[in-house]
Structure formats: C-alpha cells, structure tokens
Amino acid sequence: MSITIKDVEHVANLARLELSDEEKGKFTEQLNAILKYAEKLNELDTEQVEPTTHVLPITNVMRDDTTRESVGVEKAMLNAPDEEDGQFRVPAVLE
C-alpha cells in the first residue's frame, strides 16, 4: 500500500488545510516512508507472543464504591457566594 498525492489532497481537504504542491509531495514521501517502516513489522514472527493491552501488569487502583453520609445543606451553603432558600443563587443566564 502506498500513499498518492491524491490521498494527501483528500486528507488535507478533510482537515481544511491548504497545501502547496511542494508540501503535497513532501507529505506523500513522508507518509510512504512511515508505511514502509510499519511494513517491517510483518517480518516479525509473533505466533508465540501473547496479546497484551499493556506491557506492565495494571490493576484497578480505584477505591471501593461505598455509601456514606452526604454533606448537609447548611455545610454545603457555607462556601456559597450567594444563597436563597437553601439553594445556590447564580446570575441569570437568559433574559
């Protein structure tokens, strides 16, 4: 598989980029070099390699989800810049 100038123009159009003819040629060469390098991976024998999602073992570090007492209205309103009837009062967004 190789990248053509037409492919580069298509991607540039999708990204709303304006490229000069020189840039199109340069990007075509660079993308083809990347693909050529990636094709080297096909030469590797990976039959005995177990699939992994990460090279290191990762465990879930999140805490257990347990129920607990919630903050009371009075305590929550202590830091409120403005409060009315036990609710946060904010400036109107719509007129």
Automatic annotation (TrEMBL):
HAMAP family: GatC (MF_00122). It holds the Pfam family GatC. Its EC number is 6.3.5.-. GO terms for molecular function: ATP binding; glutaminyl-tRNA synthase (glutamine-hydrolyzing) activity. Keywords: ATP-binding, Ligase, Nucleotide-binding, Protein biosynthesis. NCBIfam families: gatC. This is Aspartyl/glutamyl-tRNA(Asn/Gln) amidotransferase subunit C. Heterotrimer of A, B and C subunits. It is an enzyme of class 6 (ligase). One of its GO terms (biological process) is glutaminyl-tRNAGln biosynthesis via transamidation. Belongs to the GatC family. It catalyses: L-glutamyl-tRNA(Gln) + L-glutamine + ATP + H2O = L-glutaminyl-tRNA(Gln) + L-glutamate + ADP + phosphate + H(+); L-aspartyl-tRNA(Asn) + L-glutamine + ATP + H2O = L-asparaginyl-tRNA(Asn) + L-glutamate + ADP + phosphate + 2 H(+). It comes from Paenibacillus abyssi. The keyword Transmembrane does not apply. Allows the formation of correctly charged Asn-tRNA(Asn) or Gln-tRNA(Gln) through the transamidation of misacylated Asp-tRNA(Asn) or Glu-tRNA(Gln) in organisms which lack either or both of asparaginyl-tRNA or glutaminyl-tRNA synthetases. The reaction takes place in the presence of glutamine and ATP through an activated phospho-Asp-tRNA(Asn) or phospho-Glu-tRNA(Gln).
